[in-house]
Amino acid sequence: MNSLLLTLALAFAPFVVTESVSAQSISDITRALGSGDLATLTDLMDAEVELSILADENTYAKEQARQKLTAFFAANTPSGFSQVHQGSSKSDNAEYCIGNLTTSNGVYRVYIYVAKKGERTVLQELRFDRE
Prior knowledge:
42% of the residues lie in helices and 45% in strands. It starts with a helix and ends with a strand. It is α+β, with helices and mostly antiparallel strands. 22% of the residues are buried. Strands 2-1-6-5-4-3 form a six-stranded mixed β-sheet. It has one domain (2-130): Nuclear Transport Factor 2, Chain: A (Roll). The chain contains three helices and six strands, in the order ααββαββββ. α1 (2-35) crosses α2.
Protein backbone atom coordinates (compact mmCIF):
# COMPACT_ATOMS: atom_id res chain seq x y z
CA MET A 1 0.00 0.00 0.00
CA ASN A 2 2.78 2.43 0.93
CA SER A 3 4.64 1.71 -2.30
CA LEU A 4 1.46 2.39 -4.29
CA LEU A 5 1.02 5.76 -2.56
CA LEU A 6 4.67 6.62 -3.14
CA THR A 7 4.37 5.70 -6.83
CA LEU A 8 1.25 7.86 -7.22
CA ALA A 9 2.87 10.77 -5.39
CA LEU A 10 5.94 10.61 -7.63
CA ALA A 11 3.81 10.32 -10.77
CA PHE A 12 1.77 13.44 -9.96
CA ALA A 13 4.56 15.56 -8.41
CA PRO A 14 5.59 17.27 -11.69
CA PHE A 15 2.02 18.49 -12.24
CA VAL A 16 1.76 19.94 -8.75
CA VAL A 17 5.13 21.67 -9.04
CA THR A 18 4.29 23.12 -12.48
CA GLU A 19 0.97 24.51 -11.24
CA SER A 20 2.54 26.14 -8.17
CA VAL A 21 5.40 27.63 -10.20
CA SER A 22 2.94 29.23 -12.66
CA ALA A 23 0.68 30.49 -9.90
CA GLN A 24 3.68 31.84 -8.02
CA SER A 25 4.95 33.57 -11.17
CA ILE A 26 1.62 35.33 -11.78
CA SER A 27 1.33 36.37 -8.14
CA ASP A 28 4.92 37.67 -8.27
CA ILE A 29 4.00 39.71 -11.35
CA THR A 30 0.81 41.12 -9.80
CA ARG A 31 2.69 42.07 -6.61
CA ALA A 32 5.41 43.74 -8.66
CA LEU A 33 2.85 45.66 -10.72
CA GLY A 34 1.01 46.84 -7.61
CA SER A 35 4.17 48.21 -6.07
CA GLY A 36 5.92 49.36 -9.26
CA ASP A 37 8.77 46.86 -8.71
CA LEU A 38 10.51 46.97 -12.09
CA ALA A 39 13.40 44.75 -11.02
CA THR A 40 11.07 41.82 -10.32
CA LEU A 41 9.03 42.44 -13.48
CA THR A 42 12.19 42.52 -15.59
CA ASP A 43 13.50 39.30 -14.00
CA LEU A 44 10.25 37.52 -14.91
CA MET A 45 10.18 38.73 -18.54
CA ASP A 46 10.97 36.63 -21.57
CA ALA A 47 13.76 37.91 -23.86
CA GLU A 48 11.04 39.70 -25.87
CA VAL A 49 7.77 40.99 -24.46
CA GLU A 50 4.63 42.17 -26.21
CA LEU A 51 3.85 45.40 -24.38
CA SER A 52 0.75 47.52 -24.90
CA ILE A 53 0.32 50.76 -22.98
CA LEU A 54 -2.91 52.35 -24.20
CA ALA A 55 -2.37 52.97 -27.94
CA ASP A 56 1.39 52.26 -27.85
CA GLU A 57 1.72 48.58 -28.75
CA ASN A 58 4.83 46.73 -29.85
CA THR A 59 7.15 43.82 -29.15
CA TYR A 60 10.20 44.93 -27.21
CA ALA A 61 13.45 43.41 -26.01
CA LYS A 62 13.48 43.01 -22.23
CA GLU A 63 15.48 46.20 -21.59
CA GLN A 64 13.30 48.29 -23.93
CA ALA A 65 10.18 46.98 -22.19
CA ARG A 66 11.72 47.96 -18.85
CA GLN A 67 12.32 51.51 -20.14
CA LYS A 68 8.70 51.80 -21.35
CA LEU A 69 7.40 50.55 -17.99
CA THR A 70 9.72 52.94 -16.14
CA ALA A 71 8.19 55.86 -18.04
CA PHE A 72 4.65 54.54 -17.44
CA PHE A 73 5.22 54.10 -13.69
CA ALA A 74 6.85 57.55 -13.45
CA ALA A 75 3.67 59.10 -14.87
CA ASN A 76 1.30 56.69 -13.06
CA THR A 77 2.61 55.75 -9.62
CA PRO A 78 1.13 52.33 -8.75
CA SER A 79 -0.62 51.90 -5.41
CA GLY A 80 -2.10 48.42 -5.77
CA PHE A 81 -3.27 45.60 -7.99
CA SER A 82 -6.44 43.56 -7.66
CA GLN A 83 -6.88 40.37 -9.63
CA VAL A 84 -10.23 39.95 -11.37
CA HIS A 85 -9.72 36.70 -13.30
CA GLN A 86 -7.07 34.05 -13.85
CA GLY A 87 -7.11 31.08 -16.19
CA SER A 88 -5.20 28.73 -18.42
CA SER A 89 -4.74 29.14 -22.12
CA LYS A 90 -5.65 26.32 -24.50
CA SER A 91 -2.06 25.23 -24.15
CA ASP A 92 -1.12 23.63 -20.85
CA ASN A 93 2.03 25.72 -20.87
CA ALA A 94 0.41 29.17 -20.64
CA GLU A 95 -1.73 31.15 -18.23
CA TYR A 96 -3.24 34.59 -18.10
CA CYS A 97 -4.48 37.01 -15.51
CA ILE A 98 -6.72 40.06 -15.79
CA GLY A 99 -6.79 42.67 -13.07
CA ASN A 100 -6.97 46.32 -12.12
CA LEU A 101 -3.91 48.43 -11.43
CA THR A 102 -4.65 51.43 -9.24
CA THR A 103 -2.32 54.36 -9.93
CA SER A 104 -1.98 58.03 -9.09
CA ASN A 105 -3.81 58.83 -12.35
CA GLY A 106 -6.63 56.32 -12.16
CA VAL A 107 -7.27 52.64 -12.69
CA TYR A 108 -5.92 50.59 -15.60
CA ARG A 109 -7.17 47.20 -16.72
CA VAL A 110 -4.13 44.93 -17.04
CA TYR A 111 -3.82 41.70 -19.02
CA ILE A 112 -0.89 39.41 -18.13
CA TYR A 113 0.15 36.41 -20.23
CA VAL A 114 2.84 33.99 -19.04
CA ALA A 115 4.17 30.84 -20.67
CA LYS A 116 6.44 28.04 -19.59
CA LYS A 117 9.77 28.20 -21.37
CA GLY A 118 12.08 25.37 -20.44
CA GLU A 119 11.97 25.08 -16.67
CA ARG A 120 10.87 28.69 -16.20
CA THR A 121 7.57 30.52 -16.48
CA VAL A 122 8.12 33.89 -18.18
CA LEU A 123 6.11 37.02 -18.81
CA GLN A 124 5.40 37.27 -22.54
CA GLU A 125 2.63 39.85 -22.78
CA LEU A 126 1.52 42.81 -20.69
CA ARG A 127 -1.34 45.16 -21.66
CA PHE A 128 -2.56 48.33 -19.95
CA ASP A 129 -5.94 49.81 -20.92
CA ARG A 130 -7.97 52.56 -19.29
CA GLU A 131 -10.63 51.15 -17.00
